[in-house]
Amino acid sequence: MKILGINSLNHDAAIAMIQDGEVMFAGHSERYSGIKNDSNLNSPIFSDCYRYGGKPDKVVYFERPWLKKVRQLRAGQYNEVFSKTNLPSYYLRDYIGNTKIEYVQHHQSHAAAGYYTSPYEESAIVVIDAIGEFETCTIWYAWGSHFEKRYSLKYPKSLGLWYSAMTQRLGLKPQEDEYILMGMAGWGTVDEELKQNIRNDFFIDSDNLIDLKDNLHKGCLWWNPKYYEDDGSDEWKFNIAANVQAICEEEIVKVFELTKLLVPETDNCVYMGGVALNCVANSIIARDHYPNLWILPNPGDAGSSLGSAAYVFGEHINWTSPFTGYNIKGRYPWKKVLDELLDGNIVGVASGRAEFGPRALGNRSLLADPRGKEIKDKVNMIKKRQKFRPFAPSVLEEHAHEIFDMPVRKSQFMQFVAPCKFPDKYPAICHIDNTSRVQTVSKEDNPGYYKLINEFYKKTGCPMVLNTSLNIKGQPIVNSYLDGVAFSKKYGVKVL
After folding, report:
1. Model's pTM, two decimal places?
2. Quick one: DSSP state of residue 303?
């Protein structure tokens, strides 16, 4: 049985193919179209998917469109409500023909994506995002092939929408730049009075979860952060970001405390939804609440393409790797990359199958020696990013705990932050608070990438490399070999 899962017409469109429990393909539309967070699908991604899995026997959509339109009607989004093009059956016919479409509710897709790829036979499941059809936060108990919903929070009360609104208010792009707000927070100061003032502006003082005063679907550009003057510097933004992040963490902790009460049957937990990309909050949950925490490397809406297919399949799927996208054939060029790193160069890698998720994990990466004091500025200049933003370390799994105070045993997908024990030694991968968003690498995770880092360790004594995605800010990650060639010519970085 071949099942095609689809996410589209929202943001970050994606498709995934499961055949008899094996993930044949899972990829992002943006990597083929070149449009960041592309909400539309395209023929090349379907062609690539069918190349691996053939034509599907079933097609499953990640949400129920008519239920979503009811919510859009209540929200006054009339252009969306009455648009025929936003109906999947109409929109997808050029790609799937007359194949019947099955529909799975949005949060069910999230829950299934996490649970059916997890190592657990029973688990609590937490889903927190901006919005599904109506739901914004759900808590589940799953065992075998059963899902039991034990809590549901509905629109317009949404932590994801609030965080996106604050992202917009700080001059960033909502539903894209939330990770920048998270990074800005490290440069600011958490002040209890300021934090309470922000709470008073947006939250109702109650025992309810995420009890917001306003519907923030259209943002909060009206909000005047009077507690800091906009003097043209970044200081006020950093301080607002720090307190916004602190509030977000507090609200997430409340959700997981409730999960402990509502799902006492297990100590395992699966965490999904766009809010699960907040790796600072993830680390708190892993340290203090659920050491057995599984987060799919693609927990947002794109991952729901896989989740919708998995939900219909109804069993755990064989999830062994996030490398499920477009395949650049050939052996991993570890020796050539090693030579470039030893010469002090910044080098790109475009090899093997693309990562399914927003973070490059070694196959579509820009790499450098993490020990140089100037390397962060050089890489940020290439990527056209803010100077204050650090980069992730890819560290040999067996050495991770020597260098970082890890909240988990391993972190293959850059989902957690950890204090670095030697920040002066590795300045390029340390944030202002001396934490790093760590990726641990083992032979099983990625043999070629592991070989590269291990050989670099043998030559230098440094068991890690600096890793960031092979793209420029505002552009998708490089997908194909030709994309890599074009990147090299345009930005002057060798891509191997």
Report:
1. 0.95
2. G
The CA distance from 340 to 91, in Å, is 46
Number of H helices, E strands in the chain: 18, 18
- Which DSSP letter does residue 121 get? S
Report how far Cα 273 is from the mean position of its chain's Cα atoms. 9
Cα separation, 164 vs 159, whole angstroms: 9
Q: At CA 114, angle to CA 59 and CA 23, rounded to 5?
A: 50
Question: How far is the C-alpha of 42 from the C-alpha of 401, rounded, in Å?
Answer: 43
Give SS3 for 114.
Answer: helix
* CA pair distance 314, 378, nearest whole angstrom: 48
Q: DSSP secondary-structure letter at 380?
A: H
Is 425 in contact with 371 (CB distance < 8 Å)? yes
The CA–CA distances, whole Å, from 460 to 215, 392, 406 equal 54, 19, 23
Can you list the domains of the chain with their CATH numbers?
A: 2-114+298-313 (3.30.420.40), 159-292 (3.30.420.40), 323-491 (3.90.870.20)
User: Quick one: residue 9, left, alpha or beta (phi over 0 = left, psi -120 to 50 = alpha)?
Assistant: left
Between 473 and 339, the more confident residue is 339
Q: CA 346, 331, 357, 454 torsion: positive or negative?
A: negative
Task: Round the average pLDDT of the chain to a whole number and report it.
Answer: 93
- Tokens coding 308: 């919708």
Describe the strand order of the beta sheet including 101-103 as a list of residue ranges: 22-28, 14-19, 2-7, 58-61, 101-103
* Contact status, residue 369 vs residue 351, Cβ threshold 8 Å: no
Task: Over range 364-382, report the average pLDDT.
Answer: 91
Residue 263, phi then psi, degrees to nearest 5: -125, 75
